[in-house]
Amino acid sequence: MTLLRRICLLGVALLLSACGKEPLYQEQGYVFGTLVEVSVYGEQEPRARQAVAAVMQEFQRLHNMLHAWQPSELSELNAAFAQGRHKQVSPELAAILQDATQLAVQSGELFDPAIGGLIRLWGFQADTFKAVLPDEKRVAALVAANPQMSDIVLKGDVASSRNKAVRLDLGGYAKGYALDRAAALLKKMGIHNALINIGGNVLALGSHGSRPWRVGIQHPRKPGPFATVELHDGEAIGTSGDYQRYFEVNGKRYCHLIDPRSGQPAQGVEAVTILTHGAHAGVLSDADSKPLFISGVQGWREAAARMGLDEALLIDGNGKVYLTAAMQKRLEFTDKATVGKVEP
After folding, report:
1. Which of 80, 107, 140, 194 could be 111's S-S partner, Cβ–Cβ 3.0 to 4.6 Å?
2. Tens digits of pLDDT across the chain (344 residues)
3. Where are the domains of the chain?
4. Which alpha helices (DSSP H) does the chain contain, by range?
5. Strand duo 341-342 + 321-323: pairing
6. pTM of the entire structure?
């Protein structure tokens, strides 16, 4: 029995013992390097189980296709780029690259999946992270090479790169894409009320009975949520934080969110959370938070406007909360004494 299946079964057992007669079915798994959970409300267990199994299979398919450093279609493409070769890609991957390129341009290249080489240098293309700083000259060389999504040339289903330094890492896109794919699958199977959670990126379908789905926003420095928010049909929430994928050297924290301009992990921010909606709410919840995080306290609001985000918040390195007026209306802080600085 695989680890994924064992975790899934454990999630079901916990649900059945805890939820009694409530028509809520949940399964957990581990994919994309993080915990995933799918909840279905208002369906008989066999039907819900079948739908969730299809979603979990889709997650694994995408994981196998988009893995940045293990054998995958994406890693094969990276090898071709490094050798200056053309490579035929699936129509799905071609569409993903086109979409990611548009988001990169919109973000002013602060969302840049082409900097996989920098992510690898910092040790974040691994399941565990060593507290070792990379060679400064190698970092500087990659920054000077300036790999960008716009370096990629797509002609039909054939991809090439004008820049051999391009090394794709879709870690800031794939979870959101998987959310959208899961939502489409569930709708196709007639499931109208569900909550899909991939490592803190969450998308809602329908409602939890007579009320909206309510989710917590993880506190970046303490156990449990620092706020909760109701998600309505088709809405998604995404958080970029420095508290899951990081290491420390001499008391300084280095996280996986790399600033393409400097080649260094972004500093001065603990977390950014955004709310999105629409046909591609999942992708946007994943990709659009990165430019805000990297822009920091001084530039996050401008970055939010550039990405078309009305509902966003940032927690700085001192734990101070900054948020938009629209986000303030949606949040319920766990600590009622919490005061956020509202920026128009």
Report:
1. 107
2. 333 333 333 332 233 333 445 699 999 999 988 999 999 999 999 999 999 999 999 999 999 999 999 999 999 999 999 999 999 999 999 999 999 999 999 999 999 999 999 999 999 999 889 999 999 999 999 999 999 999 999 999 999 999 999 999 999 999 999 999 999 999 999 999 999 999 989 999 999 999 999 999 999 999 999 999 999 999 999 999 999 999 999 999 999 999 999 999 999 999 999 999 998 999 999 999 999 999 999 999 999 999 999 999 999 999 999 999 999 999 999 998 899 999 98
3. 73-161
4. 3-19, 45-66, 73-82, 91-106, 116-121, 136-145, 174-188, 281-287, 289-306, 325-330
5. parallel
6. 0.92
Residue 255 and residue 265 in contact, taking contact as beta carbons nearer than 8 Å: yes
Measured at the CA of 28, the angle between CA 272 and CA 232, to 5 degrees, comes to: 50
The Cα–Cα gap between 254 and 245 comes to 9
In this structure, the number of other CB atoms found within 10 A of the CB of residue 252 comes to: 10
DSSP category for residue 70: S
Which distant-in-sequence residues (6+ apart) come within 8 Å of 90 by Cβ?
A: 65, 73, 157
| Pick from 1, 2, 47: nearest CA to 23 | 47
- Residue 286, sorted as left (phi over 0), alpha (psi -120 to 50) or beta, turns out to be alpha
Cα 175 to Cα 12, 34, 126, 319, distances in angstroms: 22, 10, 17, 26
Could you tell me the two tokens for 13? 């057992």
CA distance 203 to 30: 17
The pair of three-digit structure tokens given for residue 147, joined into one six-digit string: 């790999």
Tell me if the domain spanning 73-161 has CATH number 1.10.3980.10.
yes
